[in-house]
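To fix ideas, we quote verbatim one protein's residues and fold tokens.
>
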Amino acid sequence: MENNKRIPGTLRLTIASVLAALTMVLLIAPLPAIGYVNIAAVMEVIGAVGASTGLLGALGVTSGALIYSIFRPSEMFLQLGFLPMASGALSIALLMHRKAATTTLLLTLLLVLFFQVPGNVYVPLWALWDKFIALLLIYPTVYLIKKSFTSKGIGGDANKGFPRLQIITPLVVVGLIVAALLIRSLGLDNGLMEFIPQIPLIYSSILLALYLSAAVYLLRGVFLAVLLLSFIGLEIDCMVGNILFGAYGYSIYAMTAQQVADLYTPFAIGAGAERLITALIATYITLPLLVALESNPRLRWLIHRE
């Protein structure tokens, strides 16, 4: 592990403050959403991975989300609206520090707690299929992180991939947004029957498959590591949001506990797709940042490695 003890505390504070400010800007800006996922959630990945040393990024993102929630409380979660974003950033940072057991325990506790609120209602286990997949991916993700983020470099050959990444990233981000809009246009909220293959779904699925394949070919382990980090973090973000909504958020909308439970079945497929697309977008934004930090001797200490 690189020695970061000589990094001034003021510099660490400055970096955390910049990430906090950027988080607030993205939360305030009228950015598009991927279904019900605010695109500002990409900051969880950018901050927690790009400034993973000392959990700087997670602390910065959490601070920004907290300040935003104080001055502009969430309609659904009130002043606790910062918790989903904070939990996502923290879980990604924990994975970057190879804390697989801690992250597994966190997500397991959230899953158990989910079935306790609002209580006395039934939600089928399969409705949380994407959360269970995230749980199973934690240890493989940490293995990839160990292989991809080392003292020798990122992925062993990150700098050579940077020119190609600069070209493909804008194209892929635009393509992913188009794919997200196509999936959103299907109206999956109306029920599982809406997921029967249609032309827009086929187009969007082909786009996603092509972009994913191209990225895996270009950066392989690094891409997969960041993508899985993003997906797991966003799923934990979602779980915290679900728990807050089940604990008291639904009462704000004059809903009953049974009505809340009934929401999770039709949303099951769409929710997983939304988070995967958001994870892909976050990955494509984060990778050029990582390569840029890695190529700068004065900034490469920001990325935690062992």
User: Anything to note?
Assistant: The first strand starts at residue 33 and ends at 34. Residues 3 and 162 are 26 Å apart (CA to CA). The chain has one domain: 9-302.
